[in-house]
Amino acid sequence: MFSKLALLSAILTAFSVKAQLVGTYQTETHPSISWQKCTKGGGCSNVSGSVVLDGNWRWVHSKSGYNNCYTGNTWDKTLCPDNKSCASNCALEGADYSGTYGITTSGNALTLKFIQQNSNGKNIGSRVYLMASDTKYQMFKVLNQEFSFDVDLSKLPCGLNGALYFSAMDEDGGMARFSTNKAGAKYGTGYCDSQCPRDIKFINGEANAEGWQPASNDANAGTGNYGSCCNEMDVWEANSISAAYTPHPCDGTQSTRCSGTACGGSSNRYGSSCDPDGCDFNSFRMGNTSFYGPGKTVNTNSKFTVVTQFITDSGTASGTLKEIRRLYVQNGKVIQNSKVNIPGMSSSLDSITSDFCTSAKKAFGDTDSFSQHGGLSGISKAMSVGMVLVLSVWDDHTANMLWLDSNYPTDASPTKPGIARGTCSTSSGVPSDVESSAASAQVVYSNIKFGDIGSTYAA
């Protein structure tokens, strides 16, 4: 619902930005991870993959030395006097995944630590992408398919978000479309989402230094003139208190660069080519306060499986998305998604459909930018092309994650439908607080499966 890039902090000034050239000081070795491809008749088979760190966390320096291209939350004016010069002057370095960033894999499991102390300071948050090869992202075409994974977020308190989602990024990170991008998917370039984030340091093979404004509440971030927009399917945004899944359609099918207020944001939230709000299903927000959380029906004190089904109107991969269905499996028990309990909405609703989205926007009094950008049929077009799997952990410098786990907006009555989203205090989630109190927080994603509907879990 809010920009995932602006809300993630980097370890220190040297490791807080991505570029388009490639450095030679640190060998880039992607941590390996396996996942499974499943069919109804043939069961599941292992697929060997890996993960790559988003370029925004990497050290970027002068291509012929150690000078930082970006320090604190400002650009070096000598190396980056303009966007094109910056891209040609700056090199993106390889990553020490475990030592610097707290990112480790084991078999089919990925662990992302929220805070990782290291010799250079500390890393805060991370984002990685699933790779099909050393130079290409794994592309998922989810129409008429099912996606499942196990997650342990028992150590994610209020204010944190373990997010797993699909983004309509280029398979090669943008190298083919933009000749000045020499780093590509191998170094985690090409990020985009439905918020059209303007804090991305390099977009379309160029820097975003021109017009850069340092953030007043984040020592590592800022915004440039440009943003990067694309379709986004939030399969999972959650901590131990609240969870939501949310499609965000855009007008096109691939990433596009926007400029200024056309990127949306606080000054013009609905002015971009994408839907920033999406159509979210959060069980707590939908009126069932006992369904998800510690000791509840889906008990976040221990690991569980999240299953998401992308149903089309024809029941085939060539059809148009009509429903996004959710269920859970925990301790060998299949748990159907919670039902809606909101005045003005049908109590039979328990999945994301066009009827659900329309009635929720009306019941909550929300702007219906979802339907304005094509709704489910809009994001269906991007899904048919293919999307990249993103796995992350982050804190929120914009809204303290209150939109996920507390009452939001904070100046509205929590008794108004749609305002209460979880049990966290409205004073929770301040990044400086959670970065201190939740230093041991982490999320573990494992057992990723993808295939025919009904093939990735045991009923």
TrEMBL record:
Q: Please give the catalytic activity noted in the UniProt record.
A: Hydrolysis of (1->4)-beta-D-glucosidic linkages in cellulose and cellotetraose, releasing cellobiose from the non-reducing ends of the chains
Q: Which InterPro entries match?
A: ConA-like_dom_sf, Glyco_hydro_7, Glyco_hydro_7_sf
The record's SUPFAM superfamilies line, in alphabetical order, gives: Concanavalin A-like lectins/glucanases (SSF49899)
CDD domains listed in its UniProt record: GH7_CBH_EG
Under Gene Ontology molecular function, one entry of this record is: cellulose 1,4-beta-cellobiosidase activity
E.C. numbers: 3.2.1.-
Output the GO biological process annotations, alphabetical, semicolon-separated. Answer: cellulose catabolic process
Give the signal peptide range.
Answer: 1-19
Keywords from the named record = Carbohydrate metabolism, Cellulose degradation, Glycosidase, Hydrolase, Polysaccharide degradation, Signal
**In which family does this protein belong, per the annotation?**
Belongs to the glycosyl hydrolase 7 (cellulase C) family.
Protein name listed in UniProt: Glucanase
Species of origin reads Agrocybe pediades
